[in-house]
Amino acid sequence: MLLHFDAFRAFQPKRKTYALFGHPLGHSMSPALHQSLFEASGHDADYIAVDVPPERLAEALTLARKKLAGINLTIPHKKAILPLLDAVDQSAADLSSVNTVTFEGCKAIGFNTDILGFAESLERDGITLKGKKTLLIGYGGAAAVMGYHCMKEGANLYITGRNPEKAEELRAYLSGLFPDVKCSTCTRKQIPKDTEIIVNGTPLGMYPREDRTPLYYLPRSTKYVFDAVYNPPSTALLRLANPRFVQTRDGLYMLVMQAARAQTIWYGAQFSQETCDLILRRTYGQLAVKRLHDKYHKRHIVLSGFMGCGKTTVGRKLARLTGLSFVDLDHYIEAQTQMSISDIFAQYGEPYFRDLETRYITELTQRREGMVLSLGGGAVLRPENVTAIKKSGLLILLDTPLSRILKNLSHSTTRPLLETADKFAEIERLYAARHPIYQQAADLSIRSPRLSEVVERTLKRI
Questions:
Q1: Pseudo-torsion of CA 209, 212, 115, 269, nearest 10°?
Q2: 8 φ, ψ to 5°?
Q3: Cα 369 to chain center, whole Å?
Q4: Residue 107 is a catalytic residue
Q5: pLDDT confidence band for 420 (50 / 70 / 90)
Q6: Model pTM?
Q7: Cα separation of 127 and 161, whole Å?
Q8: What is the pLDDT of residues 157-176, one digit of tens each?
């Protein structure tokens, strides 16, 4: 729920309620993320977003003391809240930045959980910073948080950005806090070739300007790249990394973990790694739906690909993570006709079945509620089907390797087109004929031999 400030004045919580204060506030992922964490911990609470103009922050905090159990803060309130608080955690004081406030009796106490989210992202990936040449891109609030942690952990830190004076200001500030740790500034041309770790604290590459990147190449010794941007999850910077040699992490795990640590501060919640990973996958799903609407202006995720490529399995998993409904086109046709696909082929022939596909694709894609739709292997062979799909759906090809498809179909007995003397030869013939059509029709193409990877890659690519 997003409330404007006047509505927040009148707001009366029905149970424990927490809130995000910011200005302006558009669509924030925080309410859904915190609600997932509440459900995981069994905490009976609500989370709202409140648009608080800067001049109303003091009044908002006064109201929060009476109405709320805790708050999060985002731009432009992270620094402005400091003089209004009764106490501040050491790291938040060092950074002059608070993103979490808890109320203990009459006191409002400030913390910075962004730094905890960043630290746990690196820990999750097994990254140690001590003595490592680390490049920090940026000098704003997010960069300061990451630079603080890098210095605290003993990294040999280099700071770069478009404004050398601001980079120097951050260097001087961090060096004042950690005088025994190496910290330098550099231009892009001066980035050490033996830099191992790169962390981006700038918004470059964020939706809608996704083509932008703070670097155009990575130093040859790079082993790890962290980008605080999470929309899109696959940024232009992260795509510079060769996945065979360079480990990467977008900013969504940091978002999840800073929220989890806020709840630890508020009411002592503890979350297992398994729980955090599940919530992370669901958050990727929620982000994919948001991007489906905002970037692509579509309602549906539509999966195409050769028979046996995993469309139904992947589709069900995508539906669970995104919250969209799931429809398997072949199963839908069978339900509508009360006949199996094999019987339709046997009694009426393939052209009749293709007409049914076209009819039901048109019907399904006109639905107002979003869904994940898994197509049959031949559905995109008709141009009119592709046209109908793309009016409201993002068409994604599951480009499963032929070797995996042959294995998946080795025991299949329900594919009418494979009822031949040499099933494997027919699979290879059909695959060769259809694959170029699949590629031409698709908006996105996902390739991996492992279905678990396909689901993750699909969500991140959207």
A1: 40
A2: -65, -35
A3: 22
A4: no
A5: low
A6: 0.91
A7: 23
A8: 999 999 999 999 999 999 99
* Residue whose C-alpha is closest to residue 127's, from 180, 193, 199: 199
- CA-nearest of 187, 181, 112 to 142 is 112
- Which is catalytic among the residues 78, 132, 311, 460? 78
Amino acid at 314: V
Structure tokens at 53: 């103009």
Q: Which residues contact 190 (CB under 8 A, 6 or more apart)?
A: 160
SS (H, E, C) the chain: CEEEHHHHHHCCCCCCEEEEEECCCCCCCHHHHHHHHHHHHCCCCEEEEEECCHHHHHHHHHHHHHHCCEEEECCCHHHHCHHHCCEECHHHHHHCCCCEEEEECCEEEEECCHHHHHHHHHHHCCCCCCCCEEEEECCCHHHHHHHHHHHHCCCEEEEECCCHHHHHHHHHHHHHHCCCCCEEECCHHHCCCCCCEEEECCCCCCCCCCCCCCCCCCCCCCCEEEECCCCCCCCCCHHHCCCCCCEEECCHHHHHHHHHHHHHHHHCCCCCHHHHHHHHHHHHHHHHHHHHHHCCCCCEEEEECCCCCCHHHHHHHHHHHHCCEEEEHHHHHHHHHCCCHHHHHHHHCHHHHHHHHHHHHHHHHCCCCCEEEECCCCHHHCHHHHHHHHHHEEEEEECCCHHHHHHHCCCCCCCHHHCCCCHHHHHHHHHHHHHHHHHHHCCEEECCCCHHHHHHHHHHHC
> Quick check: 138 and 215 in contact, CB under 8 A?
no
Cα(197)–Cα(147) distance, rounded to whole angstroms?
12
Q: Which residues contact 4 (CB under 8 A, 6 or more apart)?
A: 50, 51
Please report where in the chains the tokens 């007995």 appear, as a residue.
Answer: 413
d(Cα 144, Cα 340) in Å, to the nearest integer? 61
| CA dihedral over 93, 98, 100, 105, signed as positive or negative | positive
Of the candidates 132, 203, 204, 144, the residue with the CA atom closest to the CA atom of residue 171 = 144
Cβ atoms of residues 218 and 198 within 8 Å: yes
Residue pLDDT, tens place only, 289-327: 999 999 999 999 999 998 878 899 999 999 999 999 999
Both tokens of 317, joined, read 């998993």
Q: Give the count of beta carbons closer than 10 Å to the beta carbon of residue 341.
A: 18
